[in-house]
Structures are given as C-alpha cells and as structure tokens.
C-alpha cells in the first residue's frame, strides 16, 4: 500500500481540521468534500467515529495501516496508558522530531529530508523516517545540507521553545530529544482513547 498522494485539502476537509497545517480552502469550505459533504443531517455511528479518529492520526503522522497497528501493539505491551504511549511513540518518530525542531515545514518535508540522507542522529546519517528516537539523542542536519533553502527557510523565525521535550542548539543546528512528551504537551487534536476502543473491539 502506497502513501496518500492526493489533495491534502480533501483530507483536511474530511476531518474538518487543518491536519497538514494552515489551509485557506478549509477556512472557506469547512465541510466534508464530495456531493453530500454539506448535508448536515448525516450522523456518524460510534464505530465510524472511532475509525475516523484512527484515520486522522494516521494521516497526521503519515503512518500506514500496518505501521500504525504495530505501534499500537507495542503501546499495548508497554506499561502505562495505551493511548498516551501510542501518542508518545508517534511523537518520537524521527520524521516527526525533525518537523518539531523546525528543520522542515511539514512532516512530509521532514520525511523527504530523512529519506534523502540530510539528517543525522548522534552524528550518523539515518534515512529511516520511522526510526524511534531515544532520550538523549541529538538530531541535526548533515554538514553539507545546512545550506539547503528548505531548511534555512523553515528555521527562520521558528519558535524552538514550543516543545518542552526537545532542546535546540542554534550554533550546531541540532536538537536534543530530552524525554518522551507528556500527553498534555502534544498539541495534536487526537482522541487516542477512541483508537484504543476501536482496536479493542
């Protein structure tokens, strides 16, 4: 199964949220796409609501179904609240950390930077977007890639104090993953408990 490559606005309208970032079309057409998108009489079933929440999480983090299921299984085997652990696993993906550090403007751009070997972890090139970053590891830009326009433009004016679980070093253009984030510190509007209930059926 390939990643979704269609219009991102269509997905944002489907969930009624700018899950890929600011969306001008969504602000004007804040109803689902399609012929019956503006039919407010339609009701979603309980199962449909849970399924939609899972789909929203997958699209937000750019994770395929099998990857997502494997992460859920790992979260369920780990001590703690399954839903919160799942969100922590998603947040600790390398492509997400690159995005959170402001090195890339979107998660899709972050995945591309990782795939093209522009990102290093503790000084070594890592080209696996799903790589799970551990506490204490340093994520940075490869020396010869620091002049890339997409990186410099993304970093310009970025507020690096937004996320308390990562620390940015402007001199080295690198960030340190301090610890797994608390759920309250993760800004994504995802009801992870619905995902847990879906997989528990």
Q: Which CATH class of the largest domain?
A: Mainly Alpha
How many individual helices? 9
CATH superfamily of the largest domain: Ribosomal protein S4/S9, N-terminal domain
Low-confidence stretches: none
Shape-level CATH architecture of the largest domain: Orthogonal Bundle
Give a count of the beta strands, DSSP E runs of length 2 or more.
5
What does this structure look like?
The longest helix is centred in the N-terminal third of the chain and has 16 residues, at 46-61. The protein folds into 2 domains: 8-89 and 187-200, Ribosomal protein S4/S9, N-terminal domain (Ribosomal Protein S4 Delta 41, Chain A, domain 1), CATH 1.10.1050.10; 94-179, Structural Genomics Hypothetical 15.5 Kd Protein In mrcA-pckA Intergenic Region, Chain A. It is globular and about 50 Å long. The relative contact order is 0.14. 42% of the residues lie in helices and 8% in strands. Helix 3 (46-61) crosses helix 9, helix 5 (82-91) crosses helix 9 and helix 6 (94-100) packs across helix 7 (107-115). The chain has helices at 8-15, 24-28, 46-61, 65-77, 82-91, 94-100, 107-115, 149-155, 192-200; strands at residues 119-121, 124-125, 138-141, 166-169, 174-177.
Task: Give the key terms.
201 residues, alpha+beta, Ribosomal Protein S4 Delta 41, Chain A, domain 1, Structural Genomics Hypothetical 15.5 Kd Protein In mrcA-pckA Intergenic Region, Chain A, 5-stranded antiparallel beta sheet, 8% strand, globular
């Amino acid at each position: 199964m390939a990643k979704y490559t269609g219009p991102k606005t269509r997905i944002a309208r489907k969930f009624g949220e700018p899950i890929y970032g600011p969306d001008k079309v969504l602000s004007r057409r804040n109803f689902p796409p399609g012929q019956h998108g503006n039919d407010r009489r339609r009701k979603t079933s309980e199962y449909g609501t849970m399924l939609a929440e899972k789909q929203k999480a997958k699209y937000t983090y750019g994770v395929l179904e099998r990857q997502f299921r494997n992460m859920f299984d790992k979260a369920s085997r780990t001590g703690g609240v399954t839903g919160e652990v799942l969100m922590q696993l998603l947040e600790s993906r390398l492509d997400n950390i690159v995005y959170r550090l402001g090195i890339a403007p979107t998660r899709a751009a972050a995945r591309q930077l990782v795939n093209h070997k522009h990102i290093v972890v503790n000084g070594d090139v890592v080209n696996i977007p799903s790589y799970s970053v551990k506490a204490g590891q340093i994520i940075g830009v490869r020396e010869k890639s620091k002049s890339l326009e997409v990186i410099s433009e993304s970093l310009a004016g970025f507020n690096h104090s937004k996320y308390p679980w990562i620390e940015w070093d402007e001199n080295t253009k690198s960030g340190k993953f301090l610890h797994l984030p608390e759920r309250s510190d993760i800004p994504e509007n995802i009801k992870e408990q619905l995902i847990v209930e879906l997989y528990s059926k």
